[in-house]
Design brief:
The structure is a single chain. Helices cover 31% and strands 20% of the residues. The chain is α+β, with helices and mostly antiparallel strands. A hairpin with a 2-residue loop joins strand 17 and strand 18. The termini are far apart.
């Protein structure tokens, strides 16, 4: 008799049939494995409240509102009369039955997860394992890493004092007390919250206790921690091991926000790499775990576990200050040598000799601070190369013109992932959509695709994100309906990512002209300046819905009219605008407004066809040359001197 653990998401459908099963049991950490009424509960409405099974009155099968939250279900093959209706994930008597059920759930849940072992809160005596059956996808979820062993981590500890001595700027020394000074750590708390007292138990972490001890990452707590928080694991890139993460939200909420990470913007990172010809790449081994924490501070990094809690002795992954500390430490190691992206180090050089000299300096710094590093992928450590993959970007510095694109392996995973399939089908969990949308943002940045071309996708993501922020307890496993317009735009981006074209770096030659655009409450104007005089211009009056639009949208409309009507020469086109919102939207290629994104998309598509790169810049309203022509002044006869606009 085959027994398999499954997890899926679904909506109540009221269907008259259910898969034939002998017994269905809900196991969600609150209900017991063989709770009375389990059969009816499995086929009825799924609710947030625990069903009443003590003989009390029961509304439907749940005593409350419908819920879309995930639930563990154990299904054992065998005949069973149909329940009250609905759909449920389960296992039939053979692979074909399970594959058929998976197809039925595909449109509802975006995939059926099949696991080879039980959840952590169920004893092994209640199940027998079976191999994963063909045709079943693993739906992303919080327990997708169930059963993965914790990856072995280094026992090396960084000499933070030596690292601080190398810090010529002082940015790392500014945050070092958060690791070593209990007084400074306590001062970072919001008034009255330093005492702690929070305890959230972890599930399934007991089996990792020996690994945590042997690596020196954590030790058993001799007294109650100030904060004992929930720990969980996430799969690593190899898919065979997991990394430990602490849900440090209770601690983060009690502390003030950390300062800036000093992480470079992605576009600036790429531009700096493409100014060089050679690079050496490596990353820190279990980098966060190499930072030691003072014993009096580790009591704030407690792991709530069965029996005896544990204390982290190293930098806590999940703590809001941890990325800032790690990034600033990395910046010390690569100062004047290259770039760092948290635990990724990139040593650069314009020539091979320069790159090798910089690598030698970096090695001395890493050895002095006792930072353990390793090569990325199959590369040899300290090897200088011209083509490599770093932070999800493939660089080709050996080409005649330096270029970059998405890491092909990452692009393939994003394009063909189960989350993408679910979102494009129109029904996906909020978690699946968030993962796909995050990849979309990353891809557009690397491939230099303006995000304003995906206005409907951005608008839906904004509404969903706002709903999650406003919710008292966000339900990330809730099924959401993705609008057709957003799916079409995502499909267009998916096609671009599948092609994964090379993006050539550098800025084209300047056109030698300046575009001035401005708008008032009733009119707009655009002037083109070249060789110290105005050579062309346009003006108009807002009509229809545009007449009642926000001033920011009117400024965007004026900019779009100027680009479409006046800009024809290929190259870098300087633009002068007195509205900071429009300048920012043009610079990053997107706006927070759906209407503004539609207008901006029109102007950028025209610029792309004409091979124009728009370079916006802000000017005060008093220096805006187009301003008088939005307030009643007529355009001069062109060409005209600059004084003609005043």
């Amino acid at each position: 008799m085959a027994v398999t653990w499954t997890r899926a998401w679904w909506r109540w459908t009221g269907g008259p049939t259910t898969p034939p099963v002998e017994r269905v049991v809900r196991v969600d950490g609150r209900s017991r494995a063989d709770e009375p009424g389990g059969e009816r509960q499995a086929f009825g409405r799924w609710v947030r409240k625990r069903p009443r099974v003590d003989g009390g009155k029961r509304r439907g099968d749940g005593c409350g509102r419908r819920s879309l939250s995930p639930t563990w279900v154990l299904a054992v093959g065998g005949p069973q009369p149909a329940g009250r209706g609905g759909r449920v994930g389960g296992v039939g008597r053979d692979a074909s039955r399970l594959a058929g059920l998976q197809r039925r759930l595909q449109g509802i849940a975006g995939g059926l997860a099949v696991y080879d072992e039980a959840p952590d809160n169920v004893s092994s005596s209640t199940y027998s394992s079976t191999p994963s059956l063909p045709g079943c996808r693993v739906a992303p979820g919080r327990r997708a890493d169930a059963g993965l062993p914790l990856a072995r981590v280094t026992s090396n500890r960084i000499d933070v004092e030596a690292l601080a001595a190398m810090d010529g700027v002082g940015r790392f020394r500014e945050v070092l007390p958060m690791l070593m000074d209990p007084v400074a750590f306590a001062e970072a708390f919001v008034s009255g919250d330093a005492a702690g007292g929070c305890r959230v138990p972890s599930r399934g972490m007991e089996r990792h206790r020996a690994t945590l001890r042997s690596c020196g990452v954590a030790s058993d707590a001799r007294s109650r921690p100030a904060f004992a928080m929930k720990a969980f694991t996430t799969p690593k890139k190899d898919g065979r091991t997991a990394r430990l993460v602490l849900d440090a939200r209770p601690l983060n909420d009690a502390m003030r926000r950390p300062p800036s990470m000093d992480l470079p913007r992605l576009r600036d990172f790429i531009a700096e790499v493409e100014r060089h010809r050679f690079a050496m790449q490596c990353d820190g081994v279990s980098y966060f775990y190499q930072f030691p924490v003072d014993a009096s501070i580790s009591r704030y990094f407690g792991i709530g576990m069965k029996g005896c809690d544990m204390l982290l002795n190293v930098l806590c992954m999940g703590w809001s200050w941890a990325p800032c500390i790690a990034q600033r430490a990395s910046n010390v190691l690569v100062r004047d040598l290259g770039l760092a992206w948290v635990d990724n180090f990139l040593v650069l050089g314009g020539t091979l000799d320069e790159a090798e000299r910089n690598v030698a300096v970096f090695r001395k710094r890493a050895q002095a601070a006792r930072v353990e590093v390793r090569a990325e992928g199959d590369d040899a450590l300290w090897q200088v190369r011209s083509r490599f993959v770093c932070v999800g970007v493939e660089f080709d510095l050996a080409a005649e013109t330096q270029r970059h694109r998405l890491d092909p392996a990452w692009a393939e995973r994003w394009v063909g992932g189960s989350g993408m399939t679910a979102v494009l089908s129109g029904r996906a969990t909020a978690r699946q959509f968030a993962e796909v949308f995050g990849g979309a943002v990353w891809a557009t940045d690397i491939l230099a695709v303006p995000r304003c071309h995906f206005a409907a996708l951005l608008s839906f993501a904004g509404r969903l994100g706002g709903r999650m922020v406003d919710a008292a307890a966000p339900v990330w496993d809730e099924v959401v309906d993705v609008p057709p317009s957003a799916r079409r735009e995502l499909g267009a981006l998916r096609k671009i990512v599948r092609e994964n074209p090379w993006v050539v770096g550098g800025v084209p030659e300047d056109t030698g002209s300046v575009l001035w655009t401005d708008a008032s409450s009733r009119a707009w104007a655009a002037l083109l300046e070249a060789e110290g005089r105005f050579v062309d211009g346009r003006q108009g009056v807002f009509a229809g819905p545009d007449a009642d639009a926000h001033i920011n949208l009117k400024e965007m409309l004026a900019f779009a009219e100027g680009v479409v009507r006046l800009c024809w020469a290929p190259g870098a086109q300087r633009c002068r605008i007195d509205n900071a919102a429009v300048v920012g939207a043009v610079a990053k290629g997107s706006s927070s407004s759906y209407a503004a994104n539609r207008v901006l998309s029109r102007s950028l598509r025209v610029a792309e066809r004409r091979r124009i790169v728009l370079c916006p810049g802000w000017v005060p309203s008093g220096e805006q040359q187009a301003d008088p022509h939005t307030r009643g002044a007529s355009l001069p006869r062109f060409p005209a001197p600059l004084s003609a606009s005043r």
